Amino acid sequence: MNAAAHALEWQAAAAALIRAMPRHRMVGNGMQGTDADELHAGVSAGAAWSEVAARLARRQTRLAVAAMAAGDTVTARDKFLRAAACWSFGQIPLEDGPAKQAHYRSLVEAFGRAGALLDPPAEHVEVPWAGRSLRGWLLRPHGVVRPPVVMVLGGMDAWREEYAAGAELVRDRGVALFLLDAPGQGETRVLGGLHLDRDVRLALSAAVDHVLADDRLGDRVAVWGNSMGGHLAALLAAQDQRIAACVVTGGTVTPSETHTRFPRFIGKVQAMLGLHHDEDAARSLMDDLALDAETLSGLTCPLLVQHGKRDAVFKIANARPIHDLAASTDKTWQEWADGDHCVDNHADEKYLEVARWLAPRLTGAPVPA
For residue 170, which of 189, 186, 149 has the smallest C-alpha distance? Predict the structure, then answer.
């Protein structure tokens, strides 16, 4: 390949990354705006995405450490969270292996340092499953005795920490957060080696067992899933009657739809499933996870489904059946005409709607008009 062709290929790859990770997604899910701009600018200028993100993360960490030394724990926590967001977005294009693991260890460290400054402090949790563990963060609200809990799930490459900032709106209303990486996601996969399989619902039910066994927490557990996590949330709520409420943001009844329409996505699916060398087995497993009317008839708890009409990852036509086929008598459909995947382009509004809908159904507070 000559230099001109190589440059064109690099520019195309950079443009694709920027399209996949637009500024509003990164800022809405925890990254500082100037960092998002600098990341895009660096990549457009020819730098590697993950290297620019790592540099930004280290700068935020230095600012956090300086704030700690000055006794400013509020600023320190914010900067550690900004660093975690840089590590989180930085690892996305990396394949599973040492480089991704190094980014992920730094992400966990930064988020943990931020969580240590909460009252009460965030706790790193491991739920034993299949000889390994599901890994998550427990963030309890200040001053609330035995709060209800919402388990928060991410998708194929947007995982638990990415949703922490928005989920804090729920915690502020007296609900504990269990930010969880399901099998095939985040720390559970990258550092723990646990992949998604046909027993994923049982694994998530084990996480519910863990929450209910913690006597510091209440007996009401909700699940909120985003993207592929939205699919998993509906699957869990339909088959585990202990789930008190379910929120699906950007989900689908047909998780195979993306790699069927966009074959390049099959690599992400294979990584999630741990089937790197067996594309046919990966396709078969994803087909088996489809939600049908019989399964969704078991979803009887309060249900909120959010979706954007312009979602190109999971089509709105494949999200609508989650709402329509669920047997819940308390169900709400929220649609954004210009909404993209997971309605990231209306992040503040989306998260506020979840908090306003979910918290009263768990705490017994009056439901907002």
Answer: 149
Q: Which amino acid is at 105?
A: R
Cα distances (Å, whole numbers) of residue 209 to 196, 229, 295: 19, 19, 21
Contacts of 264 (CB under 8 A, 6+ apart): none
Q: Report, in this order, helix, strand and coil percent for the chain, each rounded to 5.
A: 55, 15, 35
Task: Please count the structural domains in the chain.
Answer: 2
End position of a domain, from candidates 82, 117, 152? 117
> Is there a contact between 258 and 265 (Cβ–Cβ < 8 Å)?
yes
Q: What is the CATH number of the domain that holds 310?
A: 3.40.50.1820
Q: What is the pTM of this model?
A: 0.95
**E strand or H helix at 101:** helix 98-115
What is the Cα–Cα distance from 202 to 127, expressed in whole angstroms?
Answer: 12
CA 135, CA 105: separation in Å to the nearest integer?
A: 13
Q: Which residue has the tokens 């017994």?
A: 364
Same domain, 332 and 200: yes
Tokens of 323: 């709402």
CB 170 within 8 A of CB 358: yes
pLDDT tens-digit series, residues 298-314: 999 999 999 999 999 99
Provide the 8-state DSSP code for 153.
E
In degrees rounded to 5, what are phi and psi of residue 336?
Answer: -115, 120
pLDDT of 1? 54
